[in-house]
Amino acid sequence: MPTEDATYTVLVTWTDLAEPGPSMLRDAGCDVVFLTETKDKAEVDKLLGTCEIDAVISRTIELDADALRSCPSLKVISKHGVGVNNIDVDAATALCIPVTNTPGANSQSVAELTLGLMITAARRIPWLHDHVKHGRWRRVQDGYQLGGQTLGLVGLGQVGRRVATAARALGMAVAVFDPAIAEDDAPPGVRVCGELTDVLRMANVLSLHVPLTDGTRGLIGREQIDLLPDGSIIVNTSRGPVIHEPALVDALRSGKLRAAGLDTTAIEPIRPDDPLLELENVFITPHIGGSTTASASAVAAAAAENLLAVLRGAAVQLDRQVNPEVFDARGRA
User: Fold this and answer.
1) How many CB atoms lie within 10 A of CB 219?
2) What's the Cα-to-Cα distance from 185 to each of 157, 162, 191, 192, rounded to whole Å?
3) CB distance 258 to 121 below 8 Å
4) Domain 107-284: which CATH class?
5) How much is the average pLDDT of 161-190?
6) What is the per-residue pLDDT for 71?
7) E strands, 221-280, where?
8) How far apart are CA 160 and CA 208, in angstroms?
9) Neighbouring C-beta atoms of residue 115, cutoff 10 Å
10) Catalytic residue among 80, 162, 239, 244
11) Predicted local confidence at residue 333, as pLDDT
12) Is 75 exposed, middle or buried (0-12, 13-18, 19+ CB in 10 A)?
């Protein structure tokens, strides 16, 4: 529970926050409140509805309109990460609550996992490891070499750029679709395509790096998968609902797709009866792309920095403003 002598009370919607985040907040006179082990929405709703919370560092638990309206003292929501699909941003904007995020803070870690999933899908590393552990020394000759193939990127933000550079170093051609990117803004050697279909038709490996929005939900469905070369690989380290999963499952079963590497699924945690878990050519990690110690520290520091800037009336980097219209209105006040 909040203490009485703190300047501000900050709710972290999780049980912990990596350093230096907590120290930054406490040094600024903030009381930092964490969740208990339940880690559920009911606890968040209760704290917002009964305590004078000034700021929230939002992890993954939903912050809906009712919860935001129940806390008239709330002055800022600082997302720990990039994706804000767990926050009702429209409601926050209507309540004039600034929402921030931390683009780039975990991009190196996410890019590294993207490459790991790409190589895992191409070479079936977990499958081979399991065989060796069970006494089967099978030197199969069906590995898929990435060098000489084409990587198709959907989205060229900070993660996509790192993946593109690494893929080029592996000897891959790289093509990207991102409506926000001009051709002269891409890394050297990266081909910018004007249409998603252009990338799909050439992508031996398709890697997704887009936020979840109304425009990207179900972006890769049956029609898009059919455009990929036979035997392609799909990697998703963005958001699960960007892919239409029934179409993905069908393509993996039929052999249209060689494999998939997924750090995120449409429903998380994934259900035990999800058909993806029945397939040997799917490799899934539990949404841990940014979960390294280095990334956790960087994201926590950026989230705390954003939050304190708003509370102090200081400027917040433009690329960290989720609802810039609220920042603009506050600046004019």
Assistant:
1) 20
2) 11, 14, 11, 9
3) yes
4) alpha beta
5) 95
6) 98
7) 232-236, 257-262
8) 8
9) 19
10) 239
11) 45
12) middle
Tokens at 177, concatenated: 């679709």
The catalytically annotated residue of 19, 223, 268, 278 is 268
Degrees (nearest 5) of the Cα angle 314, 317, 322? Answer: 105
The pLDDT score that the predictor gives to residue 182 is 87
Answer yes or no: 287 catalytic: yes
Which alpha helices (H) appear in the chain, and where do they start and end? Answer: 21-27, 41-50, 65-69, 89-94, 107-123, 125-133, 158-169, 196-202, 222-227, 245-254, 293-312, 324-332
Residue 6: pLDDT band with limits 50, 70, 90: low
- pTM for the full predicted model: 0.88
- Confidence at residue 233, expressed as pLDDT on a 0 to 100 scale: 98
pLDDT digits (tens, 9 = 90+) for 231-260: 999 999 999 999 999 999 999 999 999 999
User: pLDDT above 70 covers what percent of the chain?
Assistant: 97
- Clarify whether 305 is annotated catalytic: no
Please state which CATH number belongs to domain 8-103+293-332: 3.40.50.720
Tracing tokens 């208990």 back to the chain, one arrives at 36
Q: Given 80, 244, 258, 287, which residue is catalytic?
A: 287
Q: Where in the chain is the domain with CATH 3.40.50.720?
A: 8-103+293-332, 107-284
Looking at residues 86-97, what average pLDDT do you find? 97
Residue with tokens 């593109």: 164
DSSP 16: -
The pLDDT assigned to 220 comes to 98
* pLDDT value at 332 more than 70: no
Compute the distance between CA of residue 106 and CA of residue 297 in angstroms, rounded to an integer. 9
Q: Which residue has the tokens 């959907």?
A: 154
